[in-house]
Amino acid sequence: MTVVGEAAGVVGTDGPEGDVSPGPRVSGGAGEARTGRKKHRHKAASREIKTEDVYRAGFACFVGRPNAGKSTLTNAIIGQKIAITSSKPQTTRHIIRGILHQENAQLVLVDTPGLHRPRTLLGERLNDLVRETWSEVDVIGICFPADEPVGAGDRFISAEMAELKATVIAVVTKVDLVDPATLAQRLLDVSKLYEFADIVPVSSVSGHQVDTLVDVIVKHLPESPPLYPDDVLTEEPEQVLIGELIREAALEGVRDELPHSIAVLVEEMVVEGRSTKIYANLYVERDSQKSIVIGTKGARLKDVGTKARAEIEQLLGRKIYLDLHVRIAKEWQRDPKQLRRLGF
Predict the structure, then answer these.
(1) Domain map of the chain by residue range?
(2) What is the rounded (10 degree) CA torsion for 236, 167, 174, 76?
(3) Burial classification of residue 272, based on how many CB atoms lie within 10 Å of its CB (0-12 exposed, 13-18 middle, 19 or more buried)
(4) What is the pLDDT of residues 122-159, one digit of tens each?
(5) How far are the Cα atoms of 8, 248, 315 from residue 83, in angstroms, in the given order?
């Protein structure tokens, strides 16, 4: 195994003690801060990627089982929130493209839903989006959370890579939640799943090793002129981003069944002077879910509006008035007509 950085000594045990077996390159180690969890610091790899005279541009995406840290990693690389992040799995619904501009490269990141066993028509469509994205990008990074053992879902996704033309790397996330010995074992387990071009441990929350990961991805992009103007950070429409921010606020603190039942549709945006009025509906499938989202005397919906408003104002750079209503769309996840109306 060809190894780069401090993590070299913890991956591969085929040779004498301290030797590393042939295989994918591993870059450094770092951590993702999590409230209430012990943090472990791992030494970062030095950035050994040499600057090239050629310009590279292309598409990359992060995949993995739900809640593996894909959206948080996309946001960390782009530098602003463009993808919804939540402690609940399967929260990404739309494919959002974030664009990172560098002097000699342009990296277009495609944020996809987590691949999972579908139980509804919505789930089937989300999985179709994932596989369609895989076939179109130049680099795929499979995310493996360091604080969880490699499981059947990881093996399934790794096996899915075999027929693809993209370069495949492994990204080990949340490494500050594990000690060095556990990280070493996780890196070794990951290296056995697939012939990865590189293996990179990262921390999305602290930003540790994110630059190294970007360097690794960029070196696998094709030589190409820029694909987007240098002032563009995402090609996703503002209304979709706003809807995602509202849905993220609505997901915090709710019961486990609600993430799969909440959809947000921004009905209207009206610019008035230096402020913008935004009218949006939150759709759930049952009366009981509506009560949960609204809360006692509307307290929870008010809190959702407060949190979403702060994020939207940061996104738009101006004051907003946010008008939210909760409506019922029965069995919308299984209804093709309603799925189309809600943008799926």
Answers:
(1) 6-219, 238-341
(2) -30
(3) exposed
(4) 666 666 677 777 788 999 999 999 999 999 989 988 98
(5) 32, 9, 12
From the candidate CATH numbers 2.40.440.10, 3.40.50.2300, 3.30.450.70, 3.30.300.20, the one assigned to the domain spanning 238-341: 3.30.300.20
Q: Are strands 25-26 and 198-201 parallel, antiparallel or unpaired?
A: parallel
Give the SS3 label for residue 136.
coil
Report the predicted TM-score, pTM, of the whole model to 2 decimal places.
0.60
Q: Which CATH number fits domain 6-219: 3.30.300.30, 3.40.50.300, 3.40.50.720, 3.40.50.2300?
A: 3.40.50.300
The count of residues in the chain is 344
Q: 170 is written with which tokens?
A: 């492994």
Amino acid identity of residue 195, one-letter, is E
Q: What is the pLDDT of residues 34-84, one digit of tens each?
A: 445 566 666 666 555 555 689 999 999 998 877 777 878 888 888 755 544
- The kind and range of the H/E element at 206 are none
In 135-194, the DSSP E strands lie at: 139-145, 167-173
* Nearest residue to 23 (alpha-carbon basis) of 217, 199, 216: 199
